[in-house]
Amino acid sequence: MLRYTAFSTDPGGGNPAGVVLDARGLSDEDMLGIAAEVGYSETAFLIPSSSGERRFDVRYFSPKAEVPFCGHATVASAIALAERTGPGELEFRTPAGTVPVTVAEGSDGSLRATLTSVEPKVEGVAEADVREALAALGWAGDELDAALPPRIAFAGARHLVLAAGTRERLAELEYDFDRLAAFMRRLDLTTVQLVWRASETVFHVRDPFPVGGVVEDPATGAAAAAFGAYARELGLVPDEAVLTLHQGEDMGRPGVLTVELRGGDPRVRVSGAGARIPPTPE
């Protein structure tokens, strides 16, 4: 069992993930038990493919359940692999679809992974569901940014996007854990992506994750990919754009996610650094 953080070069920043590089022989119950013991928002379990040494079947488990896709655990796993086999191209076959990942080495020797999402989609959300989400969060309707309307966005997992009108509103996150979890299970949501737009291409984001058994996810790659699709679908950014998402600051685990949109390609690319979390001395 390895522990890596994603979207930061500091082990104390970004989002920590458990990584099992060879999960052959583990049952579903084994994987769920390991994820619960690790206690991070997700743990990735890799099964090497017989069709190529840089291809893997990957499954992701929170402490509570399996999730179809997890961006930060993908980045963490890719960097863990690259430290052992070198940078380059990887292929992760996930329950949500095939996700190509590229790992490159920077001039300072650090590694950076870029995942390419499955084809995303964005759909509307009923007003009654928005009201229920706001009630669970303890937010008022007039605290939302009317320029960024609520939507459900998917790029491997489903996320409800809600935009705060101010940075102060985003910073204050105290919500009804059980009520929000029940709402999310009903709509099959992985997280609620709360965003605040700092500039044309810079956003601050937070992701409550009660369905995974944790209050908040520190840096959420799957939600970042979904948000990229959301921003393009609503015409908030050009068809070709690079967005910077800051996440984890309000938790004391700052991380940076880079979201790239390319013209003619509906998929979204999410990239970030990573670092191994040293074992805790016994």
UniProtKB/TrEMBL annotation:
One family from Pfam that matches here is PhzC-PhzF
The GO molecular function terms of this record are: isomerase activity
Per UniProt, the keywords (alphabetical) are: Isomerase
Q: Which SUPFAM superfamilies match?
A: Diaminopimelate epimerase-like
InterPro entries registered for this protein in UniProt: Phenazine_PhzF-like
**Family classification:** Belongs to the PhzF family.
User: Under what name is this protein listed?
Assistant: PhzF family phenazine biosynthesis isomerase
**Organism this protein belongs to:** Streptomyces thermospinosisporus
